[in-house]
């Protein structure tokens, strides 16, 4: 696969602003392991090979187990995820897919029973960000693994 456009070079100011959002999310109330799961699940749903590759490697660097990484796609059936992670994954799917008629109140209340309002808000911004990155990477055919050295992802030990 050949990348169509290098959007970081063509729109450096906009890329920098998106990168600032990503950096700000590192200081959110959502822990890094949950953010990794959210980024992986949204990237799976959107079919973004570049972001999926990147976030699986980040998760490995952050200490995530391989088995849990394999189970993200089947989290509904897996017993490897805690209630807070399950709520985050459910919210990720709903915000990413945005069903006709919006997100059901029942799902919101289920998520709210496990996460605080601040956590739901920060989580939603994380989901918004990964969906934006997915759309750019898919549109311009970003090549999986092409930025590993730049982002230190070669430390994940995954080839």
Topology:
Layout: H1 7-10, H2 12-25, H3 32-46, H4 49-61, H5 66-71, H6 83-97, H7 105-112, H8 117-139, H9 148-151
Could you explain how this protein is built, in words?
The chain is mainly α. The protein has a single domain (31-156), classed as Up-down Bundle (AhpD-like). It is built from 9 helices and no strands. The chain has helices at 7-10, 12-25, 32-46, 49-61, 66-71, 83-97, 105-112, 117-139, 148-151. Helix 3 runs antiparallel to helix 4 (49-61) and helix 3 (32-46) packs parallel to helix 6. It is globular and about 40 Å long. It starts with 6 loop residues before the first helix and ends in an 8-residue tail after the last helix. The mean pLDDT is 96.
Distance between the termini: 17 Å
Q: CATH topology, which one?
A: AhpD-like
Mean pLDDT: 96
Query: Any idea how many domains?
Result: 1
The topology string of helices and strands comes to HHHHHHHHH
CATH first level: Mainly Alpha
Task: Label the overall shape.
Answer: globular
Gyration radius, rounded: 16 Å
């Amino acid at each position: 696969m050949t990348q169509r456009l290098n959007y970081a070079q063509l729109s450096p100011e906009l890329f920098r602003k998106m990168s600032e959002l990503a950096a700000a999310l590192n200081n959110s109330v959502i822990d890094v392991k949950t953010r990794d799961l959210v980024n992986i699940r949204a990237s799976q749903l959107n079919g973004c090979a570049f972001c999926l590759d990147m976030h699986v490697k980040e998760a490995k660097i952050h200490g995530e187990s391989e088995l849990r990484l394999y189970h993200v796609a089947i989290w509904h059936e897996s017993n490897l995820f805690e209630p807070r992670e399950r709520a985050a994954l459910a919210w990720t799917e709903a915000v990413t897919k945005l069903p006709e008629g919006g997100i059901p109140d029942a799902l919101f209340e289920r998520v709210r029973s496990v996460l605080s309002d601040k956590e739901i808000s920060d989580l939603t911004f994380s989901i918004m960000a990964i969906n934006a990155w997915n759309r750019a990477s898919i549109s311009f055919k970003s090549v999986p693994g092409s930025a590993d050295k730049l982002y230190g992802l070669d430390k994940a030990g995954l080839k």
